[in-house]
Every structure is written in structure tokens, then in C-alpha cells.
Amino acid sequence: GVSVRGGGGEGEGEEDAEISLRELMYENLKTRWESAPAPSQRSATYIRQNREPLYYGDYLQLGKLLDAQRPVSETAGDPSHDELLFITVHQTYELWFKQVLHELDSIRDVFAELTIGAKRVGVALHRLLRIHEIQKILSDQIRVLDTMTPQEFLDFRDYLFPASGFQSVQFRLIEIKLGVKRTESASRKYLSSLRPKDRRIVEEAMKEPSLFDLVERWLRNIPFPNFRGYKFTSAYQLAVERMFKLDEGVIESQLDGQERDNAIEELVKTKRTFESVYDKEVHDEMKRSGQRRLGFRATNSALLIMLYQDEPMLQLPGRLLRVLVDVDDQMTQWRYRHSQLVHRMIGAKLGTGGSLGHAYLKSTVETSKVFSDIANMSTLLIPRRLLPELPSEVRDQLKYFHQVEKFDRTLFEMGGGGDSIDWSFC
């Protein structure tokens, strides 16, 4: 068969020499760029004249990339055709994980800023949407692995011990930086499976604020829940009490006996959830029991955004909250599909790294969500017809500040270039 590692002999030596020469050339170019004009002063012509022509294979490091597939079954003299597919899919996963971490770190940098304007929120949203699209690809790759039968996997599985996907440092970094919570015992078990260098990388990441932490701080600092005499919790409480009064009226008029008592009992339980928005003690009790993770003020801000996201300045934050939930959901879907794949491949066997295999993966599906509080916010929404109007002093702050006034129109009409202007949108 053809070796997946490519050539050998004299040709391979010549190729290595050529790669070394090109790497030296790139180092020299790097030194030249250090003394070049600032990027904003470089024209396209200047850039093209001051660098060596770039070759496709060198730019993508294809020599290294395509030489990185080393089937252990082939090394053992027991070559398995399907191991190359297994390696390729997992290496592709790791490349996408690298890109997700690149985007995730930049999003965390945005939320680490104390003042975040609409432009920066837009940048964070754009990159979150990119992560979401990458996640779809990660899930779709499972379909490719699904083309391998359990028997074909068993042809080389024994050669993989004790390596395991459980040891993926980049995937664990994604979890940590998103804000997935693990028990101390689970964290210790994972860290013990890593080499010292990888363990240090993970331990450092665990000390940093996660995206959840930073988003919570951003929500907590939004001023509108308590703004110039307006108190969101008080207005919300009045609206909720009115809504429940209407519901009670329907129950009393249409039900009787045990059915009515049961409906009233369920209504009281539901009302308790709503009370957590305007009663901090109820919220704190839910947080202690694990039903909530966001703080009281951050919860109020998130709910205000979702209730009033038609207001211009809340549209981007509203979309951002929805995409955070989408990213969380996509992670959950990937975990579920991955656990099903593992079950199909190995059944109830232990994983190659000593984990419980399918049972372990299945247990992480529901316990690894980060933004459940935001996902569950739909429980606390109330119909628009019952939603209290925002006071003018708050509503005015939620408008875009570049509205065109009458005198501005006149100025444009008098000093314009002769084109007729349609002002009907103002």
C-alpha cells in the first residue's frame, strides 16, 4: 500500500533542505518588516515589492500537515485502512478547536473591558456567530466517522491505549473558557490524565475569568434596571401580579372542585419562579439549590433586555444573549451525538483512557450547560399586551443618538448635491 507519510530517501532530504531554506528566508523577511513603515502607511504596492512571493504549500505548512497522520496499526505491522479516517477527523477537530479558542479569547477580551459600546458588542456577536457555525461543522463530522463500522474500529482500537479524547486539552480549554463547571474530583481526575506541560496550561486557564463570568459582570453593570427613579423589578412585579390575577379569574370561572385546586396549586408554584425576579431572597434560595447561576442584578438585566429588545439599543444585546444560548445548545447536541457514536462503536466497554465510555459521555450532556439561566428566561417572559411601558427618560436613552432633526433635513436639502432625499423613514 501507499504510505500516508509520503516519500522517503533522497527526495525527502532535498525537500527538508528546501523547507529549511524557506524558513530561513521567512525569518529574514520578519526582520525586514520590523523596520518597515507602520501598517497604516503601507500601500499594496509597497507590501508586494518588499516580500518574497509566497507559495501555497509553504503558507499552509502542508509538508508538516500532511505528514502528521501516523497510524499506529501501520507501525505495528497490522495496517488498518480506517485508522487514517479516524486520525484525520480528530486532527480536524483539534484544528477547529484552535479556531474556536482564538475566537473565544477575543470575545473574552471584549467583555473584559469595563465600558462596552454597541460596536464592541457587535464584534463579540459576530465572533460568537462564527463559533456557532464551526460547532455545526463539528457535529457534521460525526457523520463521517459514522461511515466506519464497529468492527472496522476494533481493527485498530487496541493499539490506541491509553490515549483518549478525554485528554484533549483544547476541548477542555473551550469548556473552561466558556464557563462549564466541574466538581473538584472530576477536575482532579482530568488533570491527573495529562502530561505536566498540558496540566499547567489547563491549571492556568482555570484561574482566568470565563466568558460566563465576564458576561455576568457586563449584565450586572447595565444601568437600566435602576435608572433615574425607574425600578424594573417594581414595574415587573405589578405586571406579573396583574397577569396572575387574570389567570386566577379564568381558573375560578372555568374549573371547579379538585381540578380547580390543582390548577391553583400549580399557579402558586409558577408564581414563585416569577417572584425570584423581584424578591432577592427567593432568587438567592434558588441559586443555593442550583436552580440559578446568574446573580440577582444580572438576571434582572438579562430579563429586561429580552422583554424590551425591540428598543434600538437593546437589539444587539438581545441577539447576543440568544447566540450564547445557541452556542450552549450546539455544544449539548455535539455531546449527545458523540455519546451515541461511542455507544454504537464500543457499546458498554470502557474508554481507551479508562473512563466509563458511553456512560461518562452521556452524563456530561445535561451537566455541562453554561447559559441555562438565559435559556430558561423564556419562563419569565410576559405577553407584550401586559408589558408595562418604559418611562420616557429610559426609552430616550435606548434610542440611537444620530436621529435626524428638522433643521438637519433643511441643511441637507439646501446644501445637497441635487438628489431628492426620501425622509419618510424619519
How much helix, percentage-wise, in residues? 55-70%
Coarse morphology: globular
**Poorly predicted segments:** 1-8, 404-426
Major β-sheet strand ordering: 1-2
Which structural class fits the helix and strand makeup?
Answer: mainly alpha
Number of helices: 21
Largest sheet: 2 strands, antiparallel
**Could you tell me the number of beta strands?**
2
What order do the helices and strands follow? HHHHHHHHHHHHEEHHHHHHHHH
**Mean pLDDT rating:** 85
Ends apart, CA distance between termini = 71 Å
Percent of residues in beta strands? under 5%
**Whole-angstrom Rg:** 29 Å
Notes on the structure:
This protein is 66% helix and 1% strand. Helix 6 runs parallel beside helix 9 (169-178) and helix 14 (257-278) crosses helix 15 (280-288). 17% of the residues are buried. The radius of gyration is 29 Å and the shape is globular. A hairpin with a 2-residue loop joins strand 1 and strand 2. The chain has a two-stranded antiparallel sheet. Mean pLDDT is 85; it is low at 1-8 and 404-426. By secondary structure, it is mostly helical. It contains 21 helices and two strands.
Helix-strand layout with pairing:
Layout: H1 9-34, H2 44-49, H3 56-59, H4 62-65, H5 72-75, H6 83-112, H7 118-145, H8 150-157, H9 169-178, H10 184-192, H11 196-207, H12 211-221, E1 226-227, E2 230-231, H13 232-254, H14 257-278, H15 280-288, H16 296-307, H17 312-346, H18 358-367, H19 372-375, H20 392-397, H21 406-415
Antiparallel strand pairs: 1-2
Helix pairs in contact: 6-7, 6-9, 6-12, 7-17, 9-11, 12-16, 13-14, 14-15, 17-18
